[in-house]
Each structure stands twice: as C-alpha cells, then as structure tokens.
Here is the input.
Amino acid sequence: MISTEGFKVNENKMELFPESPGAFPCICKFVDLRDYVGNSVPWHWHHSFEINYFFKGSSVKMAADRQIELRQGEAAFINSNTLHSVPRLPEDELCQYYTVFFDAEFISGGYNNVFSQKYILPVTACRDLQILPIRSDSSDGTRMLGVLLDIIDLFRNEPFGYEFLIRAKLGEFWLLMFSMTEDIRSASGNVNIADETRIKQMINFIEENFGERILLEDIAAAAGISARECSRCFARTVRLSPIDYLNRYRVRMAAGRIMETGDPIGLIAQECGFASDSYFGKMFRSMMGCSPRDYRGKK
Here is the structure.
C-alpha cells in the first residue's frame, strides 16, 4: 500500500510516519507538494533512511548538507539522522514524488552483525553521504532507478510475498549504492555529531518560541555555544543564518494560520513574532510569492 498521509513531526522536528499495516518496517508515501504549506517541506529528520523518486513535474531542490537539483525520473538518497528539507517551489508548480522509508535493521537483519558493520555503518558515518543524487548518467544509477521503480510497484500491487521481495530489492539497491560511493566514503571524514546535536537543539528552541522576541544570543544559548559558533553551525548544516531560519519558520506558521483561521492578518503576524506588519508583508511575499491577503484569498 502506498500512503498519502501528510507530513507530521514531533516537538523535536523528527518526522512521524504513518502506521505500517502489519508492522511492516518499510513505508512508501506519495507526496504532492501542492498539498503542503508554501509548496515546501520544512527542515526535519528521522532515524530511517529515505529514498525519493521524483515522478512528475518540474525540477526540485533538496537540501541537507548541500543542495541538489533533481528532475523528473531522478532520485535522492537521504542518510539516517540527516536534517533535510525541500525548499519552496513557485506557486502551483507541479512536483510529485514517491518516498520510501526503511530502518537499517530491515536490510541488515540485526545490530552489529557483518551486514551492519561492513555495509551499513560506513554509510551512516560518512559526512559526505548525507544526501546523494541518483541519476541515469551511469550504469549503477540507471540500475538503482530501475530497482526503486520495482519497489514502488511492489508497494502498489502487493503480490504474494511482497514483503520479502521489497527487502531483497532494497538490498540490491544498497549494494549498488555502496559500490557507487566507494570513492566518496574513502575520501570523506565522519559526520560531525556535535553539529547535529546542536542544530536540533537550536531549531527546537526556535520552533517552540517563535512567537516571542528572539535574539541570536538566545538561539545560541539553547545549545550552550557562542553566537558566532551558532551562526557557523547553521551555515554548515542548513545553509541559512539563524535569523533567516527563524523568519522562514515564522512565515510558515503564519501561512498555516492565515489559511486555517479567520483571524486578522495583523494579529497573526504579531502572534508569530513579527513586530512590524510591513516587515511581515515583505518576508511573506519573498517566501510565499504573494501577499498575506492574496494568500488567504486562495482558500
């Protein structure tokens, strides 16, 4: 079964997945970005691996430790525990994709066995494999895209034994990816765990307190670091300044309230942390491509 359930996160910005029938530890979702606020997916993370296959529409950018552009028929692998997002697309621009989520144990069969040690951990620990584009410009890439389409079809049709077949296909996909990324893993260092921990703490602080007056120093204090290191940490991980992230989150929250309530726009701006209506209007237009009033008119 392919889920169409919307995007949900918990208080720590960890994505919450739809319940899988029969506790099958692998999920496939269909996403149409036009159903999401601002035609975007905000920064989030999860323990599972993620593979996105871009099915229909214009090119789309995905962001993690770097930003990549993908076109229809291409895919992206997102590593475990990686903060990532899909930045805003222009209004009404079509982008539909399938997402497959699975845990390491689903293909390794357990913790600390030969599969985990030899094939899984080298990927999860690699700093330069937080996001990987998969294109048909190589034989391995073409084969990986074909395997991914097979997996989506298995979810859609659920033939006898499809659970075993999906696991086998994911193992095939993983081996192809492991072979293709040998040079990347050899040349790369390990993921900066300190950055991951700090950015999650600071993002959590922003998203719990976005309606209040927040200074750069307040954001830094949430992770126990200096304002300068806070800015560097945001630059290394989400490629935005802390204040840019704060303003983007405020606009996203305001956009949701504009569509879901009849509250005055000025009140929404104030409750989402904007002290000035004019500044709110400027930020909203730059992010959403229209004024708050025009956005409400699209209900």
Notes: The chain has two domains: 21-187, 193-296. DSSP finds twelve helices and nine strands in the chain. The CA atoms of residues 32 and 96 lie 4 Å apart.
